[in-house]
Design brief:
192 residues; mainly alpha; Arc Repressor Mutant, subunit A; Tetracycline Repressor, domain 2; 10 helices; 73% helix; HTH_TetR; Tet_transcr_reg_TetR-rel_C_sf; transcription regulation
Length: 192
Amino acid sequence: MGTRDRIVAAADQVINELGLVRATTREIARAAGCSEALLYKHFSRKEDLFLAVLLERMPALTPAVTRLSGQVGFATVAENLEEFARAAIAFYRRSLPLSAGLLAERSLLEGFRAMLAETGGGPHLPIMMLGTYLRDEQKIGRVGADADPDAAAALLMGACFHRAVLAALVDLGPDDKAPGFVATLMAGLGPR
């Protein structure tokens, strides 16, 4: 593992242990086994390092959405959505500490928004891609013609995000809510 990767991994560890506010460059350098000067050789600002953690260390939803788009017409829509919902909940649970800190820290948020503008990325893309999957299933008759795929995508992602937030606040136990979310959603999506 190269120095830069070691620093990003250490930042991820420190953020998870201490929280974003207490994750200082001194703590991160110590955890990475390097000096702060070396840290700043790889990252000109603390914000850049935190953005690297978010982009490189967090589980991305893109693989789950890509897998989902390849499932059009295969398995059942409910099975496909349950697999995706589990991945979305895991993503939100893992990224919540950093995301919450990012939203609370103005300079980080501005840096993140600038990066999204440069790359064309953003948290809205998985919702749009999920809507596309549902629209494709709708075209072949596995989702009702009167269903709104974009609204359904937003509802499922919102439920997954909410579940992750609740799990961060209270012990909800190991229960799997994905089947319940999807069953409820499917009641409104199914062909009539």
